[in-house]
Amino acid sequence: MCGIIGFKGTSNLNAVDVILHGLKTLEYRGYDSWGIAVLQNSPAKKPSISVLKAVGKIGLFDDLKKKKKLGTSSMGIGHTRWATHGAVTKTNAHPQLTADKSIAVVHNGIVENYQELRSWLEERGYKFSSQTDTEVIPHLFDYYLKKGLPEEEAARKTFLRLKGHYAVVILNKSSQKILAAKNGSPLVAGFNDKDLFVASDVPAFLKYTRKVIFLDDMELVVLNDGISLFDIKSGRRKRRKHDTISWSPEQAKKGNYPHFMIKEIEEQHESIRRAINQDDKKIMEIASQIKNSFGTFFVGCGSSFHAALTASYLFSMIANKHINVVLGSEFPNYISFLKKDSLIIPISQSGETADILDAVRAAKKKKSKIYSIVNVMGSSLMRMSDHTFLMNAGPEICVLSTKSYTSQLVVLTLLAYASAGRLQEGKEELLKAARHVEDYFKPEYGARLKKLASRIAKYHHIFVIGRSLNYPTALEAALKIKEVSYIHAEGFPGGELKHGSIALIEKNTPCFVFAPMDETYHEILSNAMEIKSRGGYIIGVSPKDNKIFDFHIPVPKDHFTSPILNIIPIQILAYHLAVKLGRDPDKPRNLAKSVTVR
Ligand code: F6R
After folding, report:
1. What is the pTM of this model?
2. Which of 1, 303, 331, 360 to mutate to test the pocket of ligand 1 (most atoms within 8 A of CB)?
3. pLDDT tens, 244-277?
4. Which of these, 574, 349, 582, lies nearest to 477 by C-alpha position?
5. Which are the catalytic amino acids?
6. What is the CATH number of the domain that holds 122?
7. Do residues 256 and 394 touch, judged by C-beta distance below 8 A?
8. Distance from the CA of 163 to the center of ligand 1, in angstroms?
9. Which domain holds residue 36?
10. Closest C-alpha to 182, from 139, 236, 212, 221
11. What is the domain count for the chain?
């Protein structure tokens, strides 16, 4: 996964500050180690590259001390790592350099043929110091430069030899240029009057500019006097108009909040409204494509899959329409069902999830139509789709999906209503639900959930049940709890627990029960009773308290919007569990926000 950044400027910005800020913003992509390389090019001295690398997250105190050693610079590159090849060590952290420190490289992705390239380079006298696949890149580039090729040509030859998915940024001491390329991993360039940027994601440099150029696969970008773009295969120069990002830098900042997670949870009172107030024409257009398709497949991973699964109930209940829901990683097994007029609706916050991109590639081979629902503008998924619907949740920095999940649910609810020819009614229902959201952020509500978090933090297992529309909510609630607290949590349809897993219920095992006042109410309470009879501690998430509940989480009375209204208290609870247990809510261990590996 990993986050990468490159900067070349003529303003008075110090590259060290720009890169450290960018890396901090990109840390959601990986945070087991990090590194930065800057060019020292003061007129008094010979140019040289200075490097700083460390294991762990970017800690401010250490950085400030170490940062001084790097001084000031006008250009450099940086990397925050989610290890794939080679253990988490300082040596394996990026940048990887040539032995003479003239070329430094940061890389996101995997060079699949690195062993072959490494042996080839070793035969030609190159010495390797790390276990990474990345280290072949600086050596290969050096090899072609030493052959006398012009720099862009040497970079092109280098990238043509790499197999796999990658985004790479190179700092070349001799030319004092930054070169970057992508194939399958995200990369975006940015510019203002004086400074040039390239990074895995826009928030890394959003503080300095909103003008961006999204790169396509097999493109090489050179930051020098301006931004030059080349096609890697043909070597031809390319021209591209820039896009202007609508996100504001403030949206990507923590402000007065201790963590992005709680900030983004609270932002839902706005993001849900933004998702509702979409372009009706676009919603109607997707609904009509669904109606006319030979099978519609909603595809997602993790939380986005849970949103898709919720959609299958919404479409059945509201529009009396069957849709298929498939996990991104399982989608290739379904392609024999696809036809030219099948419609694939990939749902993804990042638009970079490798399993989703693979699913889209497979569907494109069958010439099926792709209409994606995405949060990140310019993402790979958006660029691969025939059409895209932007859910407009704003930047989500915390690794956990919170506001993007509820925005997905809003868009899918609108689509279900639109498919039934009742879009306005759907909008009104959703706006009614949105009016309740603010109540979740009143101090007394938060205090209640914090108290519950303290009570259940000592347990090793948590169960969550829900029926019908709230079965996917149970899956999502369990995912939220486990990924951020590291307490094992499992979600079930209410009727399923008794088929085996009820054996795990012990005295006081916390069990969340989604009990909306709908057709599932009585049955889910019976399921809660089965758990209570075996000693379980019942936490009822319901508009109405009930004597079965040992703890009651009140939620508004609503029907088709209950998946939206029921998940928010659990997001808040998961946050308090993480804080109570001393976990980092924004960067849970072993995770990254964009899962760009298979
Ligand atoms: C959970 C979470 C993940 C993502 C999943 C898909 O909180 O964030 O499960 O939902 O990795 O990511 P996107 O939506 O970016 O494709």
Report:
1. 0.83
2. 303
3. 988 777 777 788 999 999 999 999 999 999 999 9
4. 574
5. 2, 593
6. 3.60.20.10
7. no
8. 26
9. 3-252
10. 221
11. 3
